[in-house]
Design goal:
Two copies of one chain form a homodimer. With about 450 residues, the first copy, chain A, is α/β, with parallel strands linked by helices. Chain A folds into three domains: about 130 residues, Rossmann fold, CATH 3.40.50; about 160 residues, Dihydrodipicolinate Reductase, domain 2, CATH 3.30.360; about 90 residues, 2-Layer Sandwich (Alpha-Beta Plaits). The first copy, chain A, is built from 15 helices and 17 strands. Chain A starts with a strand and ends with a strand.
């Protein structure tokens, strides 16, 4: 059988891994694909840079567009990330009759429908296992293994950088900034980590999973997205003491026919698998109406785990099953999409930490506001503070107060927040995080 | 597109679930498959039994062979289990030009090569996602998502019944027999649970995974297989105290170019995901040379989770990708298989619990035997026993002694065991289990 000729755009950490596997494991890949896979062209930013990898028989160029449209390329692998020029390159490749493999979740989240449509019109396919959760095969699983099911819930840690930082903070007692610096030093965070720590990356990945699982297109501006960049070590320790771990949790689930979606730092009860997933790992819990809940975890980022996912897509294209998979994914709006649950109706438990004035009646004022908003308390924790030795020494002005609520709505919580602010006895801003899992 | 016509053999817990999904979710299945799926024939054991499920348009019969070869059947789904008549039915179906979906790990473990060859010769395919780990898509993952990798290690809990029983014993302090009875009452164990509790079921599943991951055919009689049927609550508690959980662990891994394989109750350090997988759940850790380690877990048995896997195979057949998947699986011995590591070379840590005579010099005698066999001790635990109030009261005759070793070989361990037996100060049989994970 003829070789599948691959044009690779981007030779960074992931691209380098892909090139290495295709070149050094050519026999393995041919065996798995049923035909040889040949890396014919690679587009790089700088031809003069020295590289550790030897690519005999591969033409290196800085002309990405030429690779995307070259006659000796059957499949274009886009690994440069970002929207520009990735969108133009993918469209050019599809228009030139190439299949496309990409790891670019930002691109698919933003321009997915346009690109998917273009592929379909040309009879081509786009494979994107590597766009979500690195080496964890969640796209294959949703697209093929779960076909008996209506997915009813996805809950996941989808950003390895944030999870690494939270783990460092908690395990080493590190401040947020120090944990970020360590993540950068170890290669788990980029020089500008804002996409990761602000929750955007996880929200884009959740958007893609939601499109596949529910047939609904949702972009991060349409649902609650918060990052870990305001997390305080105190809250990780409080959570631990109360039996919870704090994780950047991405959730999409069906609630009475609507989609509840959010990506936020969340307290998760320690007996749940997500709470016990530490470091640069991702984990995804999929619940389906037939299978129940199944869990998938592994390294969510890094050159080789992501390269493993990219290469599995390349093999699928070579073997001829990528097109079938692509055509049968729920990308086409064949049924009416689920609508998003309005934010104020989202129903959860909450953890709140206030710094309150240390004077009489403060507790009564706060719990009165919560009570009037129908928010019922599950637990209250105010630690004893040092008692001054005599009355001439002023007491500490603010003391921490930690409250966990029973289930309530985001709407009630926000109404209460406005009233709490007016009380004047609470320092702003205070901390508020949702919780998952009933009290033990 | 023409409907895929399905003939189902077996309408038990799993078969009933499959029939229900195909019938009641016909629109969903057509959407996921790209064509209608029609359940034309079902073979049952007893036509007169009342059933909760309505199957309009489906012909019920007791003639399984007629279903396997019927002209209005394109795909035969074999869900009766066991070797006879399953083997004959599957061969008849393949010879009649049908594709086959089966959940029968015993059949594939015993007759896999014959059946796979028959399918290949006829240009048909066999799909068997449901044969291992119920609703956890480990066959899809090995066959498609991990194609960039040489798998280097599989470690797994593959028998939900055994895991449920171990969890019950530990959490409720139940004796083995009581936990088995409860598992039976709750439907997690069959009336005759011997295939499950003796380790055969898990070993057959490990054999199938090994064929796929390493291209090596291994049957349970060729490697170390022990079940949980001799486990004592004392050992679960000792393990817990030492920082370990006891699980029926199935392992296949490459060690210096050979395959180390065993399925045995094993002490696993509590910080590992396998140690924290409780109840009727399965978990599989796959390590590949590119992706690192990824984890998969979910309910490993039960009607609906297994039906979910069967239906995903049916959809793959309907969509036309099952044949591609089947043809590219490592089932054909295209490369020289890895040979099994000789049992006496298997290198692990061990937990041992002896009941020893409570007299002077016993500890010296035992540790002398271990030391002379080059077995080095990681920890020794002998609890204080009641001291008789005066010398006229005899002391307790036997006291428990728990030893954890550093890494040693099964060969040394067996040599030591022969010598220990000769000492006469140890009650036989004693308890010996391998351990996973270095000391914390």
């Amino acid at each position: 059988m003829d070789a599948l000729r691959v044009g690779l755009i981007g030779l960074g950490t992931v691209g380098g891994g892909v090139a290495q596997i295709l070149t050094h494991q050519a026999a393995r890949m041919a065996h798995r694909s049923g035909r040889p896979i040949q890396l014919t062209r690679v587009a790089v930013r700088d031809l003069t840079r020295s590289r550790s990898i030897e690519l005999p028989g591969t033409q290196l160029t800085t002309e990405a567009l030429a690779v995307a449209t070259a006659p000796d390329v059957d499949l274009v692998v886009e690994l440069i990330g970002g929207l520009k020029p990735a969108r133009e390159l993918v469209l050019a490749a599809l228009n030139a009759g190439k299949d496309v493999v990409t790891a670019n979740k930002a691109l698919l989240c933003e321009h997915g429908p346009e690109l998917f449509r273009a592929a379909r019109e040309r009879g081509r396919c786009i494979a994107f296992e590597a766009a979500v959760a690195g080496g964890v095969p969640i796209i294959h699983t949703l697209g093929q293994a779960m076909t008996a099911n209506q997915i009813t819930s996805i809950e996941a840690i989808l950003n390895g950088t944030s999870n690494f930082i939270l783990t460092q903070m908690f395990q080493k007692g590190a401040a947020y900034a120090d944990a970020v610096a360590e993540a950068q030093a170890l290669g788990f965070a980029e020089a500008d980590p804002s996409m990761d720590v602000q929750g955007t990356d996880a929200a884009q990945k959740l958007g893609l999973l939601t499109l596949l699982a529910f047939g609904t297109r949702v972009t991060p501006d349409q649902f609650l997205v918060q990052g870990i960049d305001t997390i305080d070590l105190d809250d990780l320790r409080n959570a631990d003491e109360l039996g919870y771990a704090v994780k950047l949790l991405a959730t999409a689930r069906l609630v009475e026919g609507q989609l509840e979606m959010h990506t936020q730092p969340t307290l998760i009860r320690k007996d749940r698998p997500i709470a016990r997933t530490d470091g640069p790992f991702n984990i995804i819990g999929l619940t389906g109406d037939v299978v129940g809940t199944t869990w998938y975890s592994g390294q969510g980022a890094g050159g080789l785990p992501t390269a493993s996912a990219v290469v599995s897509d390349i093999v699928d294209v070579a073997a001829g099953r990528a097109k079938t998979n692509f055509d049968l994914l729920d990308l086409w709006g064949n049924h009416p999409p689920f609508s998003l649950q309005p934010v104020h109706e989202i129903n959860r438990r909450y953890y709140m930490r206030f710094l309150v004035e240390d004077r009489a009646h403060v507790m009564a004022e706060i719990t009165d506001v919560l009570g009037r908003n129908d928010i019922s308390l599950a637990s209250v924790m105010q630690r004893e503070t040092a008692e001054p030795e005599d009355d001439t020494i002023p007491r500490q002005k603010y003391v921490p107060l930690v409250i966990m609520t029973h289930r309530t709505t985001e709407g009630r919580l926000r109404a209460a927040a406005i009233q709490l602010e007016k009380l004047g006895c609470i320092r702003t801003p205070w901390v508020c995080m949702p919780m998952e899992g009933i009290p033990l």
